[in-house]
């Protein structure tokens, strides 16, 4: 009887400990998501840095995201930006190693891989583009309702649709079949993102305007660029989108 009581107590205390750990983890993740929704980047970064050695992908992809956000702040110098960009990629890479079934892991791995391409030359950047598309398609497969993933894949398509001729030549020399896309394909993803989550992101509005401009549809370009201009500017990206939208609207007259 005594042995049974001891075993029961051991089971209870172990279960309670795991429950406590799980509760604490969820509280931190909820706090992190709240800070992100409020654009409290510095506070969020400090919170998640405590978990940089974690094996939990949910902490790691969030840390990759906020480290990237810090790198994009206007007060960050070029050397710091590069360091933070590579740090963000390392967190995303570790997250991918820990959990390949989380859509956000694939999404932020792709984003961070794209970022480091800016430092590694055109050959590496174009080579990485295949990997980026694969991970974005996986993210959408795992969560077809994530508007940001749809936006990113649209941006990927737009970038290759308007790839300058000299980069197209480089890509054709390096790769047997270089990445290609069209404005129509990009538009499909941007519109799908807006359908899934209307008005979710200033840059999706901006890219809809730019895509319609590229397709010579002035009326629709004006519509979406006006929406981008009027979008509440909470983040640096929102401010950039507002500024570009204003400039493009002037060009359209």
From TrEMBL:
Any Pfam family the entry gives: RMD1-3
Task: Tell me which InterPro entries the record gives.
Answer: RMD1-3_a_helical_rpt (IPR049039), TPR-like_helical_dom_sf (IPR011990)
Q: Which GO terms describe its cellular component?
A: mitochondrion; mitotic spindle pole; spindle microtubule
Q: Which UniProt keywords apply?
A: Cytoplasm, Cytoskeleton, Repeat, TPR repeat
Alphabetically, the GO molecular function entries are: microtubule binding
Which Gene3D superfamilies does the protein's record reference?
Answer: Tetratricopeptide repeat domain
Q: Where in the cell is it found?
A: Cytoplasm, Cytoskeleton
> Please, which domain of life does this record's source organism belong to?
Eukaryota
What PANTHER family does the record tag this protein with?
A: REGULATOR OF MICROTUBULE DYNAMICS PROTEIN, REGULATOR OF MICROTUBULE DYNAMICS PROTEIN 1
What is said about its interaction partners and assembly?
Interacts with microtubules.
Give the similarity note. Answer: Belongs to the RMDN family.
Q: What is this protein called?
A: Regulator of microtubule dynamics protein 1
What gene codes for this chain? rmdn1
